[in-house]
Amino acid sequence: MDWIRILELSLTSFTSIFVALLSAGYFRKRADRKEKLQSKDKLMEQIKKDEIIHLSLRQIRRDYNVDRIYIWQFHNGGYFYSNTPMQKISISYERCSEGLERNAEKNQNVLITNFNDYVKDVINNNMFYTDINDITDIGIRSLNASNGTKSHCAVPIYDKEKHLIAILSMDWVFSEMPKSIISEDGLFSEEFKNELITESATLYKYL
């Protein structure tokens, strides 16, 4: 009788282990399937946000007859040997006039230290130049000139906690700026500056 009892216990143990393994596999597959669905949902959500941003940039470009409009986004970029974190900036969105070369591909993972003065001026709402020759920073002036830019402006994009997360920039290369955005002294009007700042404030939620 003992061997029958042992056999019953063995079969019971084997069955329990088998059921446990099946259950574990089932729940693992279910978790994997759920994770894939969530990833797909996140991807679709990001695609919708990207579409909204591109449509917004296209409309702004048309409203002000801009040749190039683009968004710089701040991000982390690894560490120096001193363990100091790198701070970088990349062009994440861009729309251009037909025939104009895109700058996004060649402006990725750029160290912010190369743009310190530019960022400061943007934060202080001082990056508005109808003539790039008036830009005091030689590096920024040269960069704009190399892109064929004649006029340039940029405004900050803050999140709801007022953290600077991006910069909205605009270039006029060969198109005429609308007279409505130029003041009598030949500079960008205060009304235009306020309009652009308002436009940038609506973009943060999609970045």
Features:
207 residues; alpha+beta; Beta-Lactamase; 2 domains; six-stranded antiparallel beta sheet; 4 helices; 6 strands
Task: Give your account of this protein's structure.
This protein has 207 residues and is an alpha+beta fold. The protein folds into two domains: 1-63; 64-206, Beta-Lactamase (2-Layer Sandwich), CATH 3.30.450.40. Helix content is 44%, strand content 22%. The chain has four helices and six strands, in the order αβββαβαββα. A six-stranded antiparallel sheet has the order 3-2-1-6-5-4, with helices on both faces. β1 (68-79) and β2 form a beta hairpin.
Describe the secondary-structure layout.
Elements: H1 2-63, E1 68-79, E2 85-96, E3 110-111, H2 116-123, E4 128-129, H3 138-146, E5 151-158, E6 164-172, H4 190-201
Antiparallel strand pairs: 1-2, 1-6, 2-3, 4-5, 5-6
